[in-house]
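Morning!

This is the sequence you dropped in the shared folder:
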Amino acid sequence: MADTISLAATGIFLLSGYLLGSISSAIVVSKLFGLADPRQIGSGNPGATNVLRYAGKKIAIITLAGDALKGVVPIKISLMWGVGQEVAALVGFSAFLGHLFPIFHDFKGGKGVATFLGVTSALYWQIGAGFIASWVFAALIFRYSSLSALLSCLLVLALVWKGTQSAIIVSCFFMMVVFIYIKHRENITNLIAGKEKKIGT
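The structure's back. Tokens below.
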């Protein structure tokens, strides 16, 4: 009976994580401030970088925080209810998938970097801080938001791989990084061709 309840609770946490992740911060924030739908302007991506280009830093920061919190909140709630790190990682992965493939927005979501940061920070705040530091460092050197994010995600994966013995947690982070790279395939092509937009342009 206890196992059944535990399994049911895990299912609820996973579903809740996905549904929360499916709420697009970029779309919600843009509507609240009377701005254009981010899917219909710029790159068409409902994420903080696209919002930054047409709405400015303030709206982009709010969007970024919202996307990151989608990774933090479900994990912290599940941990408060006593689940282990592995289940919490799965809950975070569910929120991440919700952001990428939101049920509320025709399964067309963002690229996942901010939510990935939220998941990382909720499980390992030191590694989350390392992500931010590495992103800033790479951005100052290369001036590409996408490249900075891609490099920082690899760093997080390496640190998680080294720091945990859990195959489930490592697999969650590995799959998130794979999805992020897939979502950034156009950016990668542009970086190789020298056509990627730099920060501030």
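Headline: The mean pLDDT is 92.

More detail when I'm at my desk.
O.
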